[in-house]
Write a structure and sequence with these properties.
The structure holds three protein chains of three kinds. By secondary structure, chain A is α/β, with parallel strands linked by helices. Helices cover 62% and strands 7% of the residues of chain A. In chain B, helix 7 crosses helix 8. Classes of the chains: A alpha/beta, B mainly alpha, C alpha/beta. Chains in contact: A-B, B-C.
Amino acid sequence: MPRLAPMVLMTGITLLTIILAVYVTGLQQVKGHVAMIAQNNAMTLPKSSKQLEITVLSQKPPHSDLVKQKYDAYVSVNSNGGYDIETLHSSDFKNMIAFLLKNPGTHVADSKTERGTGVNIIGFMMMFLLMIAFSNLFAFADDKEQGQLHRIAASPASFSWYLAAHCAYCLSFLVPAFLMLAVLKWCGWNIGFSLLQYAGLMVVLGFLGFSFALLLNTFIKKPDNANMLGNSVTVLTSILAGGFYSFSKNNSILDQIIKLLPQKELMDFAQHLQDGNGGQHVWSILYVITFALVLFFLSCTALRRMYVKKI
Amino acid sequence: MRRFFAIFKMDMINLFKSPILVGYNTVFAALLILIMGFLCSGNYADIKDAYEYYAVSFVIYGMLNGAMTASNCFMERDIKRPNLRIIYSPVGAFPIYFSKILSSFIFDYSLHLLLMLILCPTLHVSLGSNPIYFILLMAPIEFASAALGIFFCCIFKCEETTSMLLSNVISILCFLGGTFFSLDGMGSAIAFASRLSPVKWLNDAFFALACDNSLIYFWPVIIGGIIISALLVLGCRLFFRTEDYL
Amino acid sequence: MIQMENLLTVKNLTKSFKENKVLKGISFEVHCGEVLCILGPNGAGKSTTINILTAALGSDGGEICFKGNKIGRKLRVYKQSLGIVPQDIALYEELSAERNLIFFASLYGLHGAALTKAVDEALDFAGLGDRRHDKVKTFSGGMKRRLNIACAIAHHPELVIMDEPTVGIDPQSRNHILDSIKKLRDGGMTVIYTTHYMEEVETISSRIIIMDHGTIIAEGTKETLKEGIENEKRYTIEVEENGKIPAEDFYAVEGVKSVKTDGETIEITSLKGVENLDHIIALISDHGEKIRNITSEAASLEMVFLKLTGRKLRD
């Protein structure tokens, strides 16, 4: 089957992202990676700590390593015994590095709220679960492109059940990811949420992906174009919603725009659920479900107009 | 030669007539750079550095996604049927796949150059003291990507399978290579995994040019790109069969 | 009988797809200036034969010679002399008729004034002169089919191969296409034409090859193929109920050669000179059957196929 390889690959990627999310959450996140330039080995240099990772080098690395964030700062000891710090980060960060170098054992509080395991897992999986829906709606896309949809609509079979079957098929591809979570839990890993909570969140995500894919495939003639556009939008919006990485921008306009994204609301709900007050923020998940239902309703209406006309 | 040029011209027309392909290689890429640069500007004191990072990273991402452009112009359903006539004509097999590689290469290269031409001055992104090296280094990568797309089509004989596979593989490699965000700070294991991705090596090469004006990776990448391109074209010759078009 | 020069000779062509033997060693010749129709039901191997003749598909065995030379040795020369009309519409829908013709004709080495002239002639041939600048996607099915043919003959090939070129179009467009093929034949072009429509074969063929299950079961002109059955006629009788009349009773009627019952339809092949229809009708009535419809036909290619294979062409 020519479609089997991409399906298997997509599922494999989703499973790997779950493992990656669990691993990343378990990592102790240091505040910064510093390259200490020291020509003289006899000098007493600060050592790495839980807050600061220090790599001692004899030569200053290239500027590109700062841009690529391989290192957060280059530090050299000046003639007065103090530290010259070169960084592309803000002055607050520079001051923090200077403080940690002088006070190695000190703990600096995090300005950002840490994301827990569950939120990380859902965030990492989000983009791939949405993309799975696109790749698995190929059967509907083929039916529409090749004209089979006319036959189906003209037959006594229920069009609603036909769409429901496609929905069930797309959602069935979430099972491997869910099973992976179950296996990790069984092996003793902390996966953040309970399996039931994951089931709920994944079904909502899956339905959102299916509805969006159905909408694009309904209105766009060629499945290739629908896929390309859908995957592009999914990648962009998932990143904007902070699936992989939390962005903090003090820009109210941008924040309002991002808040309209269903993925953002889902991430917020997941965070509240992890904090134990999901019940008070149930409107977030209801927004996501409503958003998906609206997309689904629009698709159904359009399909009925195109294929099922009442005489 | 005249016949090859006729096929090449037709392929270029078909590519530029596709708004989705043109948009994907310009608008989508620009949006990614602008959005990611803006969102991640909190990591840098000067927003210019954020744009620097994402402009270079996403141009590489865009270049690699050129494989999808190539596979689309080779075996996309609506293109496949008229392309069948080319198989029947006396042009031979080589112009059939090679013109697709060449046209996809020029299409992607020209659009990415246009993108850089617009974004770099606007966002104050530096491509090095002599940007010509950066531009030259893009060429073998663009060509190899196009050849990769055609080669996969020759193997799988299906554009949809090729596109789906390639887009997933490229996304993983780019993710590992640090295109979306740097993985160097996520522990030694992930940093090691990141180094396995060829995208990481490309990032190093292009950043060395753009930020350090260093040509240390220039010739290895150019030569590597040419060798890979030659191998992929040879692969197309070995695996392409006219009956796959029927 | 005048020995016609062979343009194409096919010997013992075989082809299998996995376990399925699609062509089982077919041999035939194509004479210069003729319209050779390859007739057969779906799955007979017509399209496979065509794909091998057009060098798009390799064969497992056998030999094809064009003007006495094996095509494998001078493939480019062979392809230069070919024009192909594929079964599917092979046109760039986003381009105009003219642009399609210019492109495809240029693949055969035409350029400059020769190209322009060839394109104009092809458009006139297809009757699309006034639509030359319109995009193909705005054309009707029949117009697309005509342009599909025009793209194959623009470079004046010696041999044109048409794989079911009239599929899915209205009778008017079909007649236009058939008239065009007659014009090609009259102009000296050789045509290989595959179809499963008897009427087309009756109209345009010089010679006919009948294929079934990967073999050639008959070859000849319309007249020679019908020779075997020219003294036969066929009655098709539709009755209201089935199964009541045993076949032996029909055979008892003078002149009846074969009887086939298919539900409410009885097909009787009878000798031409014998007037036995009234006996047959009486027999049916005696068995209490009511007749709905009776048709009678003289020797046809459909009958030839039925006789050779025991089934209808479209079964």
